[in-house]
């Protein structure tokens, strides 16, 4: 339980720092880089290292490559849809999360299973 | 437009907007840990590149941009959608850096000090992302010039 609370606190702090950096920088396309910062990964991997060791972290990082490819597809779709349609940000960014799941799980099945 | 820092954005952002990001960031980090414990690191690792706070950040960008354009009497909705699109395009470049971060950690952490690998991989993410952003910007300028 304490491990989950610790992950929550450290994850929240690291993500907030990168999000703040994204707010500060202009132009917006440059600030957008921070939307794909390795914030969750840094918090998770640093904590996992102490409890599970380097081999476990390497396995997680290998899967993370596929997660990042899925994130690329997700962000590209969001960018295209918001450029061509005047829909609200929340539905346009929240609904393709399912696409991320589909691409990430599909890649995992093809490459790592 | 050159890269610069605007400090007044910190004052524009409300406390609950910071709290929301903290909550999302904390939740996804905790969830990634739980998933890795339950299903193993192969599945858990996927969630290290989950677009956790992107919807929250995009909603804030849309809100701030709409407020700014409405004050100037411009078409707020269209401009706000464009701002989100531009930020998402930036994030898509950042994901290439994110994949490189993961690749560096995967290949080097078993044989090197983790306290060198993690900052080094973060540097790779930052350098590659900025480099690709510069290339994309120059290509856009070149394309605009050739069209005119």
Name some characteristics of this structure:
heterodimer, A: 113 residues, mainly alpha, 2 domains, globular, B: mainly alpha
Can you describe what's shown?
The complex is a heterodimer of chains A (113) and B (148). With 113 residues, chain A is an all-alpha fold. Chain A folds into two domains: 1-52; 65-113, no CATH class. Helix content of chain A is 82%, strand content 2%. In chain A, helix 3 packs antiparallel against helix 4 (54-84). Chain B is mainly alpha-helical and 148 residues long. Chain B has helices at residues 9-12, 15-39, 41-44, 54-72, 76-108, 114-147, and one strand spanning 4-5. In chain B, helix 4 (54-72) packs antiparallel against helix 5 (76-108) and helix 5 crosses helix 6. The longest helix of chain B has 34 residues, at 114-147. The two termini of chain B are 19 Å apart.
What is the topology?
The complex is a heterodimer of chains A (113) and B (148).
Chain A: H1 2-24, E1 25-26, H2 28-31, H3 39-52, H4 54-84, H5 89-94, H6 97-111
Helix pairs in contact in A: 1-3, 3-4, 4-6
Chain B: E1 4-5, H1 9-12, H2 15-39, H3 41-44, H4 54-72, H5 76-108, H6 114-147
- Beta-strand content estimate of chain A: under 5%
> First CA to last CA of chain B: what distance?
19 Å
**How far is the N terminus from the C terminus of chain A?**
30 Å
String of helices and strands of chain A: HEHHHHH
Number of alpha- plus pi-helical segments of chain B: 6
Mind summarizing the main beta sheet of chain A? none
Strand content of chain B: under 5%
Brief account:
The complex is a heterodimer of chains A (113) and B (148). With 113 residues, chain A is mainly α.
